[in-house]
């Protein structure tokens, strides 16, 4: 085959290869636009690797049709670098790829926190923790708590939230961020049963501790005995501030009969009124 024909075939071959490369890159651009939300969440290392890889492929398609050269003059970083041909394509793809790197979008997640299985009681106070890439906490105000600047890559994803509200159980829950990024997320907490732990001391009319005295509350519903130093404690399933009748027996005789308000904040001192 004459040299001229070989040259023409060679040039035609590279034109076809370049055209195919152009089609492939247009297709890749369309795919990236469709899945731009996922591309935005690539790690910087992966993104840079793919960028260099694409740049090398683009330059490779042009090596048969264009002459490439690279020349450096000077000392170290203060010198001059001259590029030509496909090498310029490689440089431009990497430069503009880094300059125009996609950034992940964000959304705000709104939580509605209820104190029961219905929507009748909004919780106010306490904290809500969301376990994202790093734990994030926010205060609950009037039943609402909002977390801002959450990566859009978490839309439709399930995460763990942990409420910390006085009077309610601290139980973690699995929630799913809404796909639209706007709908509020409902949380229903479980209320703790009312209970108080009351401590106190029984003394006689002379102010001395009374050991082994029987204390009876609420007409026999709750009972306990004082220790050798006259101290006692009750764990009662009632609200703080509940008033109950109290009877104290010593040697099988009633020595105290009155009502008392029970609160864990104030220790009781009960003085016998009879010998």
From TrEMBL:
An annotated Gene Ontology molecular function: carboxypeptidase activity
SUPFAM superfamilies: Carboxypeptidase regulatory domain-like
Transmembrane segments: 12-35, 47-66, 78-98
Protein name, entry field: Carboxypeptidase regulatory-like domain-containing protein
InterPro entries linked: CarboxyPept-like_regulatory
Entry keyword annotation includes Transcription regulation: no
Superkingdom of origin: Bacteria
Keyword Transit peptide: no
Keyword terms of this UniProt record: Carboxypeptidase, Hydrolase, Membrane, Protease, Transmembrane, Transmembrane helix
């Amino acid at each position: 085959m004459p040299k001229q024909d070989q040259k023409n075939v060679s040039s035609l071959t590279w034109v076809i290869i370049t055209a195919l490369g152009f089609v492939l890159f247009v297709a890749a651009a369309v795919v990236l636009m469709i899945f731009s939300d996922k591309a935005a969440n690539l790690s910087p290392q992966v993104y840079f690797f793919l960028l260099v890889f694409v740049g090398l492929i683009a330059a490779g398609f042009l090596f048969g049709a264009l002459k490439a050269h690279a020349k450096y003059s000077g000392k170290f970083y203060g010198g001059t670098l001259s590029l030509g041909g496909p090498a310029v394509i490689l440089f431009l793809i990497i430069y503009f790829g880094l300059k125009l790197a996609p950034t992940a979008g964000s959304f705000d997640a709104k939580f509605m926190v209820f104190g029961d299985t219905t929507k009748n009681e909004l919780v106010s106070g306490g904290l809500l923790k969301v376990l994202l890439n790093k734990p994030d906490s926010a205060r609950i105000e009037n039943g609402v708590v909002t977390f801002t600047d959450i990566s859009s890559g978490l839309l439709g994803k399930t995460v763990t939230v942990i409420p910390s509200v006085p009077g309610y159980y601290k139980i973690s829950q699995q929630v799913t961020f809404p796909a639209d990024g706007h709908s509020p997320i409902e949380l229903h907490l479980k209320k703790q049963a009312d209970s108080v732990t009351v401590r106190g001391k029984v003394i006689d009319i002379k102010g001395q501790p009374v050991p082994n005295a029987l204390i009876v509350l609420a007409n026999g519903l709750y009972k306990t005995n004082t220790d050798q130093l006259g101290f006692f404690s009750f764990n009662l399933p009632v609200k703080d501030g509940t008033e109950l009748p109290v009877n104290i027996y010593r040697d099988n005789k009633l020595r105290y009969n009155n009502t008392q308000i029970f609160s864990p904040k104030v220790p009781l001192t009960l003085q016998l009124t009879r010998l």
